[in-house]
Structure formats: structure tokens, C-alpha cells
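Can you please make up a protein's amino acid sequence together with its fold in C-alpha cell form to help me picture the idea?
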Amino acid sequence: MDYSKVLYALYEVIEDRKKNPKEGSYTNYLMEKGIDKILKKVGEECTETVIAAKNGVKSETVYEICDLMYHLSVLMEEQGITWDDVFSELAKRELKEGNLKKFNTRSEI
């Protein structure tokens, strides 16, 4: 399965909430509160991800990563950044050598 489709679908829901606000939508709440609230939530979710990873419980870490990715998606939409922008940057980095690091070359990228 191409799991990137899940990220695109999430982004589409966030875009739709912006265009067509829905009563009681958490996404709309974040957008109404603005960039400061969105950034606060990204920071909180990042910290929760770090704590979960430190605790060493995989399921908890995955859960927190999902929360972080959702909030990052809201931030991206607010800033006009798409998953294509992110994937494109990652693809550029894959080709870059330096600091003794190099991504594995994969033909499907």
C-alpha cells in the first residue's frame, strides 16, 4: 500500500475544513486560533513524541507521531506547504552526499 496517500487524504480534509468550516471541528478551531495556537500544538506533540520514545513503548510512540503529523499537516496547510513540497525536498536530500550520510537509493521515489 502507498501510505503517502493517507497523508494526502489528511491534507485534503484539512484543506476542506478551511474552505468549508464544520461546526465542532478541531481543525477549524486550530485555524481560527491562528499560527500561535498551531505552533503551540506542534511543540506539545513533538514533546509528547519524545517522551513516548524515551519510555520505549512503540504503540505510544506511534500514536504520538500520528498526532504530531496531524498538527504538522495543519501547520503546512496554514503556511501553503504541501506534501509534494516536503517529498520533493526529501528526494533532493536523498541525492545529496555529505557528513558520511546518504539515504538508500530507491527507484520508487
Q: What stands out?
A: Residues 67 and 104 are 27 Å apart (CA to CA). The mean pLDDT is 91. Residues 4-95 form a domain with the Helix Hairpins fold (CATH 1.10.287.1080). The radius of gyration is 16 Å.
